[in-house]
Specification:
Helix content is 52%, strand content 7%. The chain has 122 residues and is mainly α. The chain starts with a helix and ends in a 14-residue tail after the last helix.
């Protein structure tokens, strides 16, 4: 029987092999995605704090509010979902993928999206 660490390494290897377009199709959402968003938004300079999944799990309401406010600074509306897929909307209220939201936000804060460590946000 494989250990948890071995299973996580296998999952990480499979995710690394996916293109951005394929990653967009991966089911997202949950407190873990909100935690990843907090780290991304912190890295691009929105002033959002960095949170891990455990803290976000126990303080979901306040952290998801903080993350939503930080997305707004970048021109994105994020509708969080504790147990389902988060939704992201551009300035024209069109639903967009999380990946596209990140690209727009990075550009809004003059950050090179290609130089961000995306592993930190998943």
């Amino acid at each position: 029987m494989a250990t948890r660490e071995e299973n996580l390494k296998k999952i990480d290897a499979k995710l690394e092999a996916l293109s951005d377009e394929q990653l967009d199709q991966v089911a997202g959402g949950t407190y873990n995605e909100v935690a990843g968003d907090s780290r991304f938004l912190n890295d691009i300079g929105t002033g959002c704090d960095r949170y891990g999944a455990t803290k976000t799990f126990f303080a979901y309401d306040s952290i998801s509010d903080e993350v939503s406010a930080a997305w707004k600074k970048a021109g994105i509306t994020m509708a969080p979902s504790w147990g389902g897929k988060n939704k992201y909307f551009d300035s024209k209220n069109n639903e967009i993928s999380r990946n596209e939201a990140m690209k727009i936000a990075a550009k809004a804060f003059n950050k090179d999206f290609t130089k961000l460590d995306m592993q930190e946000y998943f």
